Amino acid sequence: MDETVAEFIRRTILKIPMTEMMTILKAWDFLSENQLQTINFRKRKESLAQDLVLLCAENCVSLNDAALLDIIYTQFHRHQKLWDVFQMAKEPGEDIDLSDMEQFKSSFKKILQRALKNVTVTFRDAEENAVWIRIAWGTQYKKPNQYKPSYVLYYSQTPYAFISSSRLRSNIPLLGQALTIASKHHQIVKMDLRSRYLDSLKAIVFKQYNQLETKFKSDLNRGILAEREEPLRCLVKFSSPHLLEALKSLAPAGIADAPLSPLLTCIPSKGMNYFKIKDK
Question: Best exposed site among 22, 114, 154, 166 by fewest CB in 10 Å?
Fold first, then answer.
């Protein structure tokens, strides 16, 4: 096994919390059940990582296999990344091209490899006709840096791609070009939509949010607070997978005196969650 691949796997394993180790390794599906049973998960993590690297060597692990493990770790910890949403568009009047996912993958990889000599591209299929893409960037003279990759979540037959923010911003135009051509679109633009919570971004662009119902009750079992005659002053903490939709419902429900600012209420419809406010 190549030493760089061994080190890549070792570093990835060291990042995985022990409570998630078996779950992630099983999701990886590279080591057999019998091999996993030989591992002593009570060892120090450094020693455990070395044992796992040796088992991977027995199975002739490749760089692509190691990259898949990294993708799975990232899927479990996607909130550690900052995600931007990009929207693609076709020419006016152009019909939707129902290209399949395998065709998209092949085209995407070829575009990057033709433009950049040293680049590794790894795919992992996900639910709902989606694919996770991991791109490790190199240069014409340097091998890809496996520790500063870009991640993309792309849903086929949609114009949206979710891209992790990266220090290597100079590669974003090439990445956008590969996505646009491979998905058979005409152009791509970055939306004013950014968050660490990937599921919330997906809910906004795919309009998967629903109105939530919230009832406030007093501590003295006197029913809901809407029936209270005296005004109540309190600090309220809101928690919801779709918090904005919940907040929008406060005024119509009679819980809040005034509706939210349009800057907040326009987030689902306009696909924006950060703004630049300037004086007139």
Answer: 114
Query: What is the separation of C-alpha 231 from the centre of its chain, rounded to a whole number of angstroms?
Result: 43
Q: Which of 198, 194, 146, 150 is nearest to 174 (CA)?
A: 150
Task: Classify residue 254 by burial, with Cβ atoms within 10 Å: 0-12, 13-18, 19+.
Answer: exposed
pLDDT in tens, 165-202: 887 788 999 999 999 999 999 999 999 888 898 988 88
- Whether this model's pTM surpasses 0.90: no
Other beta carbons within 10 angstroms of residue 129's beta carbon come to: 13
Q: b or e along 12-25 (b: 16 or more beta carbons within 10 Å of the residue's beta carbon)?
A: bbeebeeeebeebb
State pLDDT tens for residues 79-105: 999 999 999 998 887 766 666 899 999
DSSP conformation class of 230: S
User: How far is it, in rounded angstroms, from Cα 97 to Cα 90?
Assistant: 10
Higher pLDDT, 227 or 110: 110
Residues with Cβ within 8 Å of 159's Cβ and at least 6 positions away in sequence, in order, are: 87, 88, 89, 183, 185
Q: Tokens at residue 27, please?
A: 């999701």
Single-letter code of the amino acid located at 61: V
Question: Could you tell me the two tokens for 14?
Answer: 């060291």
How far is it, in rounded angstroms, from Cα 163 to Cα 112?
16
Residues 6+ apart with CB under 8 A from 204: 193, 267, 268, 271, 273
pLDDT tens column, 204-250: 888 775 547 445 555 555 555 556 666 666 665 655 666 666 666 66
**Which tokens in the block code for residue 9?**
């796997």
